[in-house]
Structure formats: C-alpha cells, structure tokens
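haha ok so turns out i had the wrong file open the whole time. this is the CORRECT one, sorry everyone. sequence first:
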Amino acid sequence: MSHVSSDLHLAELYAQPGHLLRRAHQISASIFHDELGEMVTPVQYAILRTLKAFPGIDQVSLAGLVAMDTSTAASVAGRLAEKKLLTRDLDPNNRRQRKLFLTEQGEALLQQTVGGIDRLHNRLFDGFSQQEEAQFMTLLQKLVHINNMQSRAPFVPAKTAPSRGEVEKGVEKLG
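then structure:
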C-alpha cells in the first residue's frame, strides 16, 4: 500500500463521526482522569451530580437520568454508599426500591470537584472561540437528543423525577 493510499484511508477514518466521537470520549476521559482521577470517576461524578439535583430519587430513575443500565447504576451506587458518599434508604412505599441521598461527605466531594471540572472544561475547549464552543455544545446536545433511543441505555425521565423541563432547570442550577 502506498503512502498516499494509507493517508487516504486514514483521512476517511477521521471523516467518520463515530470514530471522532470515540476519540473525543477518549480525550475527555483522559483529561477527566488527569483532573479528578484521585477523587471520582466520570460515572460516579454523574451519579453524584444527579443526586445533588434530585435528592431521594430511586435507583431505577437515577439510571434513566444518567443514561446507564440499572444494574450498573445500582453497582456504582453501592460502591458510593460503601465510601459513605451517599445513602440508599429503603423506600417505605415500595420496599423493592431504594431512595438515594448524598451524604455530607458526598456534598463535600462534589464541592472539591468544582475546580477540576472547570479545568476539564477549559482544557477541552482550549482553542475554541466562545461562539464555537456554544455551537459545538448545541450540536452535540442535538445529536445526543435525536439519537437517544438508539442507545442501549437511553436517557429516561423517571416517574419520581421531574419533567424534562424540570431536569434541564436542575442541570442549569448545578452548573
């Protein structure tokens, strides 16, 4: 295979959105680890942030809001409970469900992540203008929204959770 042919094949690979999204995830995860790896994983962070916005949510609803399968969400919640970052209380109205709450330690950990999350954001968008960053985020959110149901673990507004509009207001409140 010639050098020109190899370059063409590589250019074709880097024109595929799936490959670029995979690379973007790799980069984001690497920077997250650089900034926060000693404290929390990206999945743990997502769960803690969601519990901050929706205290007392059940594990199934939490899984839907963070777009992960219920068994993974339950496993991560269990590990976070072992670390005393959240509590999992039996729901008196449905003894098969647990209501999740951040502990004081969980709240403190989230507060400690603020600087790292800011640095992560700045590193990811270094070289972008404010307009480019806003446009990228708008398009990325659109891509995720219109393809949500294609996911193995789609975002699902929970029965006990607020409506989608309230979820978006909760997200705005957090960040």
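The radius of gyration is 19 Å.
again sry for the mixup
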